[in-house]
């Protein structure tokens, strides 16, 4: 019998392949729906991410949001720790962070109330398959323990999957935004 680690590894491999293909298809305006949603939350402290490899690019939407309130990007401080979020602005000085993601050169940490979450795969129930480090799961659990925190998965539609191998510690997304649609997750 295959254990959950192997099942997750296989699901990640398949999702990475779909994401790579979607990313390679090119096109502009992929963050349009993300901008549309964030416009309803002007001024609310939020975090995005600096895209790596074939992740869908949230930077245009983040730049728009930064004109109204704080926008941060995740900073990994160590294995097993939750993420911290450092304030980011368009054109700010960046340095290389862990895993090749850029982070602000000067740390200016704050806690976001909206977290735009990169992912490898998702389902329509708010399930998310990440890279396997558990960073976002720990972070969302911590933030949600303090206040309502909106977790928005941002991905290509091709990253959708059925029957994701999820664990009780996996934090659910509240919404998923792709280049083509906005998926609101019904928790009732």
From TrEMBL:
Give the required cofactors. Answer: Mg(2+)
Q: What Gene Ontology molecular function terms does this protein carry? A: 5-formyltetrahydrofolate cyclo-ligase activity; ATP binding; metal ion binding
Q: Which InterPro entries match?
A: FTHF_cligase, FTHF_cligase-like_sf, NagB/RpiA_transferase-like
- EC number(s) given by UniProt: 6.3.3.2
UniProt KW Disulfide bond keyword: no
Which SUPFAM superfamilies does the annotation name?
NagB/RpiA/CoA transferase-like
Give UniProt keywords alphabetically: ATP-binding, Ligase, Magnesium, Metal-binding, Nucleotide-binding
Q: Which GO terms describe its biological process?
A: folic acid-containing compound biosynthetic process; tetrahydrofolate interconversion
Enzymatic reactions = (6S)-5-formyl-5,6,7,8-tetrahydrofolate + ATP = (6R)-5,10-methenyltetrahydrofolate + ADP + phosphate
- Which PANTHER family does its entry note? 5-FORMYLTETRAHYDROFOLATE CYCLO-LIGASE, ATPASE INHIBITOR/5-FORMYLTETRAHYDROFOLATE CYCLO-LIGASE
| Sequence similarity | Belongs to the 5-formyltetrahydrofolate cyclo-ligase family.
Q: Which NCBIfam families match?
A: MTHFS_bact (TIGR02727)
Q: What is this protein called?
A: 5-formyltetrahydrofolate cyclo-ligase
